[in-house]
Amino acid sequence: MMTAAALPRIGFVGIGAMGEPMAACLLNAGYQVTAFDSRPARIGEFIAAHGGSAGTSLAELGQACDVVIMILPSSAIVTDVLFGDGGMVATLRPGTVVIDMTSGVPAVTVSLSERLAQQGVVLFDAPVSGGVPRAVTGKLTIMAGGQAKDIDAALPVLEAMGSVIKTGVIGTGHAMKALNNLVSAGGFLIGIEALLIGSRFGIDPETMVDILNVSTGMSNSTQKKFKQYVLSRKFDSGFALGLMAKDLSIALGIARDHDVNAPFAGLCRDLWAGASAILGPQADHTAMALLSEKLAGAEIGKR
Question: How far apart are the first and last CA of the chain?
Answer without folding.
Answer: 62
